Amino acid sequence: MKIFARIKEKYPWISYVFGLIPFTAACIGYGYYGRLPVWETIYASVALYFVNPVVDFENSLIVFAEITAVIVTAGIILSVVRYAYAKVDHFFTRLSGDATVVYTDNDLGQEVGSKLSHGYTIYNNPDDDRDNLKKFRVEKVKNHILMFENDMDNVSFFTENEKKLSGSNVFMMLRDIDPSLLDAASKETSGLHFFNIYDVMARDYWKKNNFYDRRNEKLKVAVIGYGRVGKAIFKYGYLNNIYGLNQEIEYHIWGCSPSEASFVGGLHTMNGDSIVIHETPWEEEMDVLSQMSRIIYTLEEQSIALVQKVLYVNPDAEIHCYSENQAGLAQLYISNKMLAFGDLSDILTEDNIKKEKLYRQGKLFNYDYYLRYSNGQVPDDFERAADEEWKKLNGFFKSSNIARADHYWIEKKLMADGELEENSEDAWKIEHIRWSRFYYANHWTYDKVRDNSARKHNLLVPYEELDYKEKSKDGIYSDVLRAEIDKLVL
């Protein structure tokens, strides 16, 4: 059945061909063998689809046509019923306050849509129509997830339907485009959010495989491969693996291009961490890999070769391999520190895409900054006020606040374990390191005069060089907002 479904999806016109088989057989049976006039032949052949033979004449072709006509008619009725059921189901789904629709042209989007708690998928095969976006109608729901294969299709769909999407939440998937460079990222008319599937994966990876329990060790982390996956894994490790002022984590990276090596190798860590770029292929540096605490292999090919070579020289290392098909890799070897990661069907959940708690935390952090700068007080309707301030931000500054929220659980856990005091100078230092890393990772550099358009910032300096007023901004200004933020710590 799956084969027929795939054939029908690839060649939709084939259904019409099958539908005409009974008519063709009946025409031959009535016209050629029954000697009926042309119009009587056509009328008698069509009547079979209504299970209503009008001519008392039979042969094997007509019997075949009668049977297949019933099948075709039944199929049409079932299709109409399914279509009507889907329309009714969609109508009642849209009545839900958190209804979500996924607009997509690929299997990944369909899979995400199938897991929605209240929602459905609108899918169109791009092979059927090259002008694919015109096939999609904006649904009247609170949440919209744009998951077209091509980044520009996602951007185009949003910009072409901006008025219809006004007042709703839009979650746009991007693979290659930097959202901070998009004009659409600054629109106030819609709650526009971005998610990169590799960023979602990397964030999920480091949340589940963080170094919190090993924060006092000297760690060496190898990232092999610097494509989409490798870049995301390093980026979120660099941004979120900040546990203390005296930590020492060495990141060793293989696979950078010359320009990437220059940028990544020049990133400031602001503490005892370091970044080492390797130009020699990893296969020729087994002596270095033998010293690693964790080896993260981000390429699909040669993973078995890597695992076996590393196990020979470093049987105690954690070996984490990216694989969209994770079946059995970790069970093949005697090491109990093997891990396969990267199954997007598990990672791209509704919660991970919407990140409602994370976004709300980011909004509250941003509003706290706003109140500090304006020397304001928290109003009774601070949620509405926080939303208004949030909509004024472009993609970069939204991402900056979300990055703050993404790391906040570590800060709270350090406080719970008695290693950090709330609003202490050590807490401010850690937050300044995290904030600086986010800016460095997004190509900002220091300058005496701040210039957002040129990505220059006067506060990208060691914490000790800041005056007290700037240092205190790394804390949380409002106790009311702090309480709300703390409720959302995952």
Plain-language structure description:
It is a single chain. This protein is of the alpha/beta class. It folds into 4 domains: 2-93; 100-195, no CATH class; 209-322, NAD(P)-binding Rossmann-like Domain (Rossmann fold), CATH 3.40.50.720; 355-487, no CATH class. 48% of the residues lie in helices and 13% in strands. It contains 20 helices and 13 strands. The chain has helices at 2-10, 14-33, 38-47, 60-94, 107-114, 151-160, 162-165, 197-208, 228-240, 258-265, 286-289, 303-313, 344-347, 350-354, 356-374, 382-391, 395-416, 425-441, 468-472, 479-487; strands spanning 100-104, 119-123, 143-147, 169-174, 191-196, 218-224, 248-254, 274-278, 294-297, 318-322, 338-341, 445-446, 456-457. The chain has a 6-stranded parallel beta sheet, with helices on both faces. α5 (107-114) links the parallel β1 (100-104) and β2 (119-123). α2 (14-33) packs antiparallel against α4, α15 packs across α16 (382-391) and α17 packs antiparallel against α18 (425-441). The longest helix is centred in the first third of the chain and has 35 residues, at 60-94.
What's the gist of this structure?
The protein has 490 residues and is of the alpha/beta class.
Provide the descriptors you would attach to this structure in a database record.
490 residues; alpha/beta; 6-stranded parallel sheet; Rossmann fold; 20 helices
Distance between the termini: 43 Å
How many domains in all?
4
Shape: elongated
Given helix and strand content, the structural type is alpha/beta
Largest sheet descriptor: 6 strands, parallel
Radius of gyration over alpha carbons? Answer: 30 Å
Number of helices: 20
Give the helix level as a range of percent: 40-55%
Number of strands: 13
Quaternary structure state of the chains depicted: single chain
Percentage of residues in DSSP E strands: 5-15%
User: Which regions are unreliable across 5 or more consecutive residues at pLDDT < 50?
Assistant: none
| Nearest-integer average pLDDT | 86
Query: Strand sequence of the main sheet, in spatial order?
Result: 8-7-6-9-10-11
